[in-house]
Amino acid sequence: MRRRVLGLSQTVLANAVGLTFQQLQKYERGHNRISASKLYGLALRLQSPVSWFFEGLPSTDAEEVSGAMRQAEEQAHALQAFLLSPEGLEFATLLPRTSKSARSQLLNLVRAMAGEDDAPR
After folding, report:
1. What is the pTM of this model?
2. 51-83, pLDDT tens digit by residue?
3. How far apart are the first and last CA of the chain?
4. By the 8 A CB rule, do 24 and 14 touch?
5. Do the Cβ atoms of 4 and 91 come closer than 8 Å?
6. CB atoms within 10 A of CB 23
């Protein structure tokens, strides 16, 4: 998501950190694990703290992930998948440009389309 926001292609980012674009693609999709040194290099190139890659994960002192945590992780993955889609990225880019009133109306429309009530969350 960060790579796309910065307008970097997979090839450009991969070359910048000494990877092939296929390797980067596998990292982005979660198919392969990434070494700490590569993660650090990516964070530098993406102008993000390394901790950004771990947001939403349970803390290391948690002995067991509760059902609520698993649900939160699933929601985070669904949100990330949406934001990585072309429509999601465009939506997330354009939404802040709308007025607060328009965002409120859009939120109510999306809630209705999703079958949710109008109550604020």
Report:
1. 0.48
2. 888 877 766 555 455 666 677 778 888 888 888
3. 25
4. yes
5. no
6. 16
